[in-house]
């Protein structure tokens, strides 16, 4: 399932009216995570022995894209302290965990354990 379709399911959105906006939120979420030090896998849907290897990466993207989707407010300098909503604490915890994961190494480990 492509990330856009997964995000639409996560947000419970039918139709394609918001596809451009959601795609932008997905790209921004991936870039946010990359800038936070999280290496992104080449295949978000890698499964080894029925195990979804990068589910946590996708969850981080979904949480962040949802945050962007639900907090589309105009922030003016006078309202910045009142209107600013930080990213969810759970996402911060996931980011800290994922910063230590090398997706290429994890993929190789999972695939080699499948062979054994």
Write structural notes for this entry:
The structure is a single chain. By secondary structure, the chain is mainly alpha-helical. The protein has a single domain, classed as Hypothetical protein yqbg (Orthogonal Bundle), CATH 1.10.3230. The protein has 6 helices and 2 strands. The protein has a two-stranded antiparallel sheet with strand order 1-2. Helix 1 (3-11) crosses helix 2 (19-35), helix 2 crosses helix 3 and helix 3 (55-70) packs antiparallel against helix 5. The longest helix is centred in the first third of the chain and has 17 residues, at 19-35. The two termini are 28 Å apart. The mean pLDDT is 85. InterPro entries: Phage_gp6-like_head-tail (IPR021146), Phage_HK97_gp6-like (IPR006450). This is Phage gp6-like head-tail connector protein. It comes from Anaerobacillus isosaccharinicus.
């Amino acid at each position: 399932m492509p990330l856009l379709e997964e995000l639409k399911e996560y947000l419970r959105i039918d139709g394609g009216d918001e596809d451009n906006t959601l795609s932008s939120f997905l790209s921004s979420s991936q870039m946010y995570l990359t800038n936070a030090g999280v290496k992104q896998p080449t295949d978000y849907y890698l499964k080894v022995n029925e195990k979804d290897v990068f589910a946590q990466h996708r969850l981080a993207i979904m949480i962040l894209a949802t945050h962007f989707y639900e907090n589309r407010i105009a922030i003016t300098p006078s309202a910045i302290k009142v209107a600013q909503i930080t990213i969810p604490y759970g996402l911060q915890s996931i980011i800290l965990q994922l910063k230590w994961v090398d997706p290429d190494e994890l993929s190789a480990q999972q695939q080699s354990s499948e062979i054994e």
